[in-house]
Amino acid sequence: MITLEQLLESREARAAKQRELLGSFPSAALICLTVQLPGSEKRNPTSLAIARAALEAIREEFPERLVDEEKDLETGYEGYFVVPSASLGKAGGIREEAKRRACRIEDTHPLGRLMDIDVIGPDGPLSRASIGLPERRCLLCDKPARVCMRARSHTTEELLDKIQQLVSKYI
Q1: Would 148 be classed as within a structural domain?
Q2: Do the domain assignments include residue 80?
Q3: How far is CA 121 from CA 25, 80, 112, in A?
Q4: Which terminal CB of the chain, N or C, has fewer other CB atoms within 10 Å?
Q5: CA-to-CA distance for 61 and 147, rounded, in angstroms?
Q6: What is the pLDDT of residues 118-144, one digit of tens each?
Q7: pTM of the prediction?
Q8: Are 28 and 120 in contact (CB under 8 A)?
Q9: Which of 54, 112, 45 lies closest to 78 in space, CA to CA?
Q10: CATH number of the domain encompassing residue 104
């Protein structure tokens, strides 16, 4: 189990890594993967199965990568990918094109609902709304996921049970 302090330190380290990669590759698209897993245990066989599936999907969708780095941490799995602009099309919309492809993985992969594939720009992560897509839905009901998260509409156990069902069906 991880503590809140560990989780906050991990988020800060992830943001620092993102700033470093954005500074090193300003004209490329930065993709950051994390696994959506509620509760205080972030590293287990379930999260690893989700991470492996996500890595495979990202590498297939973005075959050209300047950076391909994985971090298997107690605070959760992380992946960093820098995709050259030439492999994404027009220079003006490379991050938007990367976001469209990332959302396609999240929306169509059997475990996509459990993946958080962010495309990071100088001003932070691009939103689904910025490319005309609706926000993500809750795993257990049809409400927007952020609404259920804020209201704590579902227990951690309910969510983990659903996640385990999805992973078991996938494997």
Answers
A1: no
A2: yes
A3: 11, 13, 22
A4: N
A5: 30
A6: 999 888 899 999 999 999 999 999 899
A7: 0.90
A8: no
A9: 54
A10: 3.30.70
